[in-house]
Amino acid sequence: MSCLLLCWTLLGHAGAASFGIETRLLGRPLTAQQQATVREAADRVGALITSPYAPVRVEIAANDCDQGLPKVQGTLKKLLVFVVVKRLGDDVYATGMPCDLRDGSYLPVYGVIDLNADGLSELAREDLLDTMIHELLHVLGVGTLWEAEYRVSISGDTDERSFVRRVGGALYYTGPHALAAYRTLGGQKPGVPLDPDAGHWSGRAVCAEILSGAAGDFTGRVNPVSVLTLGALEDLGYRVNRAGASSFKLPQGSCAAQIKKDASVNPPGAPMRVPQGGFATCAAARAAGASLPIRRGQPGYRVGLDGDGDGLACETGR
């Protein structure tokens, strides 16, 4: 078998093992502790899924899906995720996406996560763990495969299902499993409220969950993986370990009342440490416990972090 980009053959289920995630590190080297945190995140996310990763034989060309990725040939027995450490934009800490979807199930063959090298050394272990879990869920398709236009298999087949619905000016997630979970939590909207990017739970209505926009404001803890996110995995076709869901409640009132800062990030009464001239990156601002976005005139503001010049630095989430 030969092909230019990727050839893959689904192997028999007889040799299929339980779902696992293999991470391969590229780019700037991580410390031993950071490497261990990446592995822990992969183990945690893999434990949420009870359906097996069916082995698949691949021939992936170099630079396919993302620049700098190596050529891969052979049989994948786990979901392969490249973790590339490199410089990203000031307002971006990390991105994650699936690469090449299987025929029939439209589930990922492999994926890639880009981590911003700038500010990584200043990030607390819990915040790196939180970020990696968040991005691994994106690789699995949560938030990235919710709309039909992105659900195209390696053979070019399309899945017409879409889990995103617009009602008036608002976006909602309407996949049946996550929607049922939202109802059990007391949610009354037409669907689970989404951020404008249609790839995260609303940072205002579903705050401090692993996939909510508000999770981008690091809190010195690992944000909970709730029944909402497990439901979204089920909607994509995964079987899940429901016992793996963390305790979670929809906010009553403002999100600020729900998010409790870890004392180790910025102890009460202790001044926030702000470098002279402002934070180098938004990742560094989050790691220091800064409330984002940072307004012009506030400690830590820097023009270089205010991409559109509107006086608000670090406006975007992850």
UniProtKB/TrEMBL annotation:
<dbReference type="Pfam" id="PF05901">
    <property type="entry name" value="Excalibur"/>
</dbReference>
<feature type="domain" description="Excalibur calcium-binding">
    <location>
        <begin position="278"/>
        <end position="315"/>
    </location>
</feature>
<dbReference type="InterPro" id="IPR008613">
    <property type="entry name" value="Excalibur_Ca-bd_domain"/>
</dbReference>
<protein>
    <submittedName>
        <fullName>Zinc metalloendopeptidase, leishmanolysin family</fullName>
    </submittedName>
</protein>
